[in-house]
Structures are given as structure tokens and as C-alpha cells.
Request: fold
Amino acid sequence: MTQTIAVIRGDGIGPEIMDATLQVLDALDLGLSYDFVEAGLVAYEKQGELLPAATMDAIRKHRVALKSPLTTPVGEGFSSINVELRKRFDLYANVRPAISFPNTKSRYENIDLITVRENTEGAYIGEGQNLTADGETATLTQKITRRGSERIVRYAFDLARRTGRKKVTVVHKANILKSTSGLFLKVARQVATEYPDIQCNDMIVDNTCMQLVMRPEQFDVIVTTNLFGDIISDLCAGLVGGLGLAPGANIGTEAAIFEAVHGSAPDIAGKGIANPVALLLGAAQMLDHLDHNEAAARLRKAIVDAMAAKDNLTPDLGGSGTTQSFAQAIAARAKG
Ligand code: ATP
Ligand code: MG
Reply:
């Protein structure tokens, strides 16, 4: 049976890196087919809606989407279309690997860790509110539930087990945020007892940031709440050489959306120099999700080999290649 994927080409550098990514996917020769749908600024301009019903239907039907960065116009209904997609499909697990690649300007060479960020609760449930008419005092409500905490922590432990990882670190701020972060930590410790084969520790978020910078090798899988996960995963992207190399998967029970962590990078859009690797690594996560594990491994190896050979690296990696020529260098190595 042919697997069809909903494909969102996105805004800014989105279309360029998506075309490059599909070219590499085609070289893997898996017989995938694509259902192109629109979201974000492009959809708003052409269809008058940021998230057209046809786009929602396609994701629901195919259950898998590959998505380029989207721009959310200011003042158009919701604060972020990415957050909205996660909410509508209840994509509760945001899985962001940070793995070292050759020839990057990073401080470490052997980083291999995954941040599992809770994607639906915490500080992201609303936009907060102004308490006074002058707009000078504002509050924000956070929500943590046992159900939400349980399923994300369980996801992290299952991921560790499935992929042969040894340790899960629960990151929190329970010493100050006693109710919310305290609940998350309590639930996480309970869930951990169900996984005696996986080592588990917990760490306060501020200390975690310092430890990540100083001794990143002590981490394997990190599981944490929404806002901490957002910040920590960018820190981890920085550890391995920047946003151009950082992918993310948004996983729920009904659908999964795979993407690059970075945004639409309007400053370099249309120049043909965006690094396609983050989205390509998102595609590799997608292939794993679809049980094309051999192809996913082949894709990752092609990326590593092209980078090791400094073959058409894009300018963010210090090369003078283009999105297209770098993708071709990877595609040539990915052929089955
Ligand atoms: P958005 O508002 O959509 O998030 P942004 O202006 O915040 O866009 P990001 O895409 O988040 O920009 O990235 C920040 C910077 O990192 C960009 O200005 C860009 O120069 C660089 N960058 C991001 N992604 C890439 C990439 N794939 N290749 C090269 N440079 C990138
Ligand atoms: Mg951004």
C-alpha cells in the first residue's frame, strides 16, 4: 500500500527546504506519495484562512504530515499556527533530538540526546491576560494534569526502551512552582517505577541548563513540561551547531506532524541558501514513525557523509553550497 503524506510547503524558506527534502526522499525510493496542502501565510493569502478545512482533513486522513515553517500573521485569531495545530490534533509529544554532526561549529562532538517536551499544557494553554486597563499588569495561568504528565513521561520512557537508550532525566522547577511542576515531578517519579530497566533522575531546570552546557554527556532522554522543553531544546540545538540541524516531531494518537525546529527565516528566504538538514532530519523521524527504519538510517547516514565530505555545505555551516546542491549531495548518497 502506498503511504501518502500531507505536505505543507510553508512560508519563508519553507518551500525551498521542502522541495529539497522531497528530492532526497524520492532518492530513497520508498514509493511515498504526497498530498500538498496549505497553511499559514500562503493559505491566508490564497484561501482567506490560516488553517483551511482541506488541510485539517488531509492531516486527519493521512495521519502523517511533513511541514515546513509557517508564518502566523499578527492579530489573526491565534498567536501561533504551530501551537494551534498541536492543540487541534492533540499532538502531545514534541520529540526533539540533538545529535552531533561532523564539520559544524559546535562546542561538542559526541552529543546524542533527545528532549521530549509536553506539547499541550503548561504555560501554552492560553495567552494570559492583562489585569488592569492600562496594560501594565498581566498574569498567565499554567495547567498541569496527571493525565497529561503521565502520558508524556510514559512516552519518554517508552521511547528510551524502544531505541535502546539508558536514562531519562525529568526536568522541573518543583522547588518554586510547587503545585504545577510539583505535580509533574510526582507523577513522573511514579511512572518511572514502571520502568526499572531505565535509569531515571530528576533535575531542576536552571541547573539542567548549566549541566547541559558543561557536561552534556550525562544526558540521554530529557522529559519536561512545555515551556522548559521549548527553551531546553533550543539550547540543545545550539550545542550541536544551530537551528539548521534541529528537527522535531509532534506526535499524538490520531496524527503526527514532522518539522524543522527553526522558523521561516525571512531574512534568507528566496535566496536558495537555507540549510535543508533540519527538515530532512524531521523526515527521518517521519520514516521511523512509518516503520521505514532502514530508510531512516540510510537518510541520516547520507547527511553525515555529505557533511563529513564538506560536500556543498550551506553558508550557515561555513560552505558555499545552495539548498539545492547540498540536497543533491545528500540525495546521491541516500540512493538505495
Ligand atoms: P519565524 O518568525 O518564522 O520564527 P525567525 O525570524 O524567528 O522566523 P528563525 O527561522 O526562527 O527566524 O531563525 C532564526 C535565524 O536563524 C534566521 O534569521 C536565520 O538566519 C537562521 N536560520 C534558521 N533556519 C535556518 C536554516 N534552515 N538555514 C540557515 N539559516 C537558518
Ligand atoms: Mg523563530
